[in-house]
Design goal:
Four Helix Bundle (Hemerythrin (Met), subunit A), elongated, mainly alpha
């Protein structure tokens, strides 16, 4: 599947922009998505725990870090949702934090579906090597 053929979830991952950031290197883009997915899974579990503990300072900190990572991989729905979650945490609105976290899990599922639809034919076991002149 060509990168531009992922139009079913265009805001889940903007593959054209991601590939631009990766200078067209499919293997590097795939590796970045793989690392992001692994770290994002951990961050979501940490967010859930912080919400359960009503630790809004921690929710805001995790959200801030995760929002930047989402923006870096051009995952715009996740970026927007996490920004809303962070705002709710900073406003100390537990009800809104819980609602935004619930919606975040839906956006995460969309991201995972878009990620699964990508078939760039690359191996991501380790970071790609960079050729030097």
């Amino acid at each position: 599947m060509a990168p531009s053929q992922t139009a079913n979830c265009p805001r889940a991952i903007d593959t054209d922009e991601l590939l631009g950031r990766c200078l067209g290197n499919l293997q590097f883009a795939e590796w970045i998505l793989s690392v992001f997915e692994q770290r994002g899974t951990i961050d979501l579990a940490d967010l859930e725990q912080a919400i359960e503990e009503r630790d809004l300072v921690r929710v805001a900190a995790i959200s801030h870090r995760l929002k930047g990572a989402c923006a870096n991989i051009s995952a715009y729905d996740l970026t927007q949702r996490i920004g809303q979650l962070r705002e709710a945490a900073c406003a100390e609105d537990l009800v809104e934090v819980a609602e935004q976290y619930h919606e975040l899990t839906n956006n995460w599922a969309d991201f995972l579906a878009a990620r699964a639809d990508l078939n760039w034919g690359t191996d991501v076991a380790e970071p790609p090597s960079v050729a030097s002149d």
